[in-house]
Amino acid sequence: MNTTTISRRNFIRSSAVLTAAAWGMPAIVPASVLGGPGQSPPSKQVNLAGVGVGGVGFGQLKSCEQTGFNIVALCDVDDVYAKKAYDRWPQARRYRDYREMLHAEGDKIDAVYCGTPDHTHAVIVLAALRRRKHVCCVKPLTRTIEECRAVLAASREAGVCTQVTASPNTSEAACRTCEFIWAGAIGAVREVHIWSNRPLWPQGMRRPPGQDEVPATLDWDLWIGPAPMRPFKNQWSDEDVALLQIAGNRGRTPHSKGVYHPWNFRGWWDFGCGALGDMGCHHFNTPYRALKLEHPVAVEATATRLFDETAPLASIVTYDYPARGDMPPVRVVWYDGGLKPPRPSELNNPLTDEGVLYIGDEGKMFTPAILSPERAKKFEDVPRMLTRRGGVWKEWMEAIQGGEKAGCHFEWAGLLTEAVLLGNIAIRAGKRIEWDAAAARITNIESANQYLRTEYRAGWTL
After folding, report:
1. CB-CB contact of 162 with 392 (8 Å)
2. pTM (2 decimals)?
3. 147-174: b or e for each residue (b if 16 or more CB lie within 10 Å)?
4. What CATH number was assigned to the domain covering residues 172-200+274-387+412-449?
């Protein structure tokens, strides 16, 4: 041997080759041992940085920790909202600006979790991908289709392991749904109805007048990020229509009284993607896998009264997909705001608050139950051929350590994200839109293409 320094990875590889030769075995070392390109071997601790850790990020970072991630850095623009995360991980280095965090942490972090409002997903995720970090982002992946395409391109270039927090399509219920449909348990599927009880936050309102003092504990400029600047408003009053609509429509107490922050960003087009953007990625994930869907060719919507800046109180969005192989064209219908499809006659009980109903030529399935007792009996022995996986965080960790891609990696999540964003465009356009996915253009209403992208304020770019 010469005196050249041997890296740990080369030492392991050389040792494995020598051992295999000594036993007369082929010298093959699996990627799961070494960690493939851009991956980490199972023995290596994965250091994780979290951005947006005060809301849903807190609970999801706890799940990351339980899966084996090592939380080493935390970033949030709101010191009060993030306090519970700071208290739980006192050893983690703290930042307000994700750009400063990524620069300062450098090679000390392997992965980045993004749990911020929708309008900052793209800039944070792109910054992490360009530093070759593994990335997990809350759904939807981005707020515009232009952002989505940019993130997918950067993800391919980075070659890292990605995940989006949509409800897994690899659970027992999800896999069984796929197996039943692929076995022909309800025949060719021609309709899918999906409904959600969202929104749980204010929608269908106008921007409140006036301006409140920004707390010293909140960096409002960073919270706004690339979106158009607007005056800070702290909370809705109990008499404001924004809160009364939630209580009056469904008897709910608002999770937060914040006008924009915390929690209530979702109803504003500048910051969120409404009920469809929030829950569509969850509920579309399994239908997309089961029916082998890609891009819709047309989308249309009806909704309650629309205001320029906010998503409606309720909507119905209809997607048309072309034939795929031996699967016929299918129509997918989304309902939110308490709206639901008609209850199928085969179902004795009222429809649940949220659900997915598949309608085929030979029967119906209310995930994952076949509604016809005779067909349920006939297909009860369909083999369980799909691998049931451990959920969002375990899938991501397995991918980082050299295993299979996470179930909702960015390429897959991009399909779900574009679907919900097209639904929102149809809501805002008020007309049926026809979509050319390859060209990334709406072909029949030129003015609707304005919603494919957004102008960033000065100092912010993709």
Report:
1. no
2. 0.90
3. bbbbbbebbeebebbbbbbbbbbbbeeb
4. 3.30.360
